[in-house]
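With this grant's support, we have paired protein sequences with backbone structure tokens. One protein thus recorded is set out beneath this paragraph:

_____
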Amino acid sequence: MNERDALRALAADLPHAGDDAAVVDGTVITTDMLHERTDFPAGTTRYTAGWRAVGASLSDVAAMGATARAAVAVYADEAFDREELDRFVAGAVDVCEAVDAEYVGGDLDEHVEFTTATTAIGRVTDAGSVTRSGARPGDALCVTGEWGRSAAALRLFNKGEDAAVERANELFRFTPRVADGLALAPSATAMMDSSDGLARSCHQLAEASAVGIELDRDAVPVHPAVEEVAGDSAERFELAAHFGEDFELVCAVPESEVDGVEEACPAGLTRIGTVVEGPENGAPRVVADGDPLPDRGYTHGDE
């Protein structure tokens, strides 16, 4: 059973499971766990690991359209190295400061491999929280930022060369889209972060909202680093749409409000498609340029 199947199995007992974060009395809370074997390629610095791990939870807060308030982390390893620990904390502090939040501590533990569990909290604004389930036919499907940076980073990590690894670490240190989420919250009918990849996020949003999605491949904004590692246009789209871990926002916005929201998003907002009626059988219909877009991306437990 993979992560998505597990969430579906839990849905009957946990009706609020499935969005990027929980909302309790206006407080947004989310938690994540990352492992060295699956999440931090060889060459990932502890500073980058701290930034990326805490940033992943802050990205979930952003997807709810909330302000980011604070974060904590569990740091576990076979042994504690003071320099590595300090670098991890420095990365955690810096990514929090990038979104006007505060890193306030956590826990230390021993483990068979470097592992971190992070929790972030935020606060819902007067605009309210944004879930995955409100997209309506006729809405524009939009995304923030550029896509494929994590895929490009992995290719550069695998090169093992000093300059490539340094560049890969830079790409791994993404800025959580908290400011963009806040700008989108008053208008977006549905929103989520893209940790599982663009294609899979489209399927998840379509399923949650009981709609279909028509995507324009050429409209997807691709990070310049992808051009350095992709062999052709097909590989370029594969890395941008299916790899995952880019932590951008995917949202549905009423057609009449796209232009205004686009101007308010610091990371940029790009329309990449349209929300359409879902099929009568209830299965999500997601197509790119008229062809079915495979529900393929990053999923824990696929192995």
Notes: The radius of gyration is 19 Å. The CA atoms of residues 159 and 165 lie 8 Å apart. The longest helix spans residues 46-63. The mean pLDDT is 93.
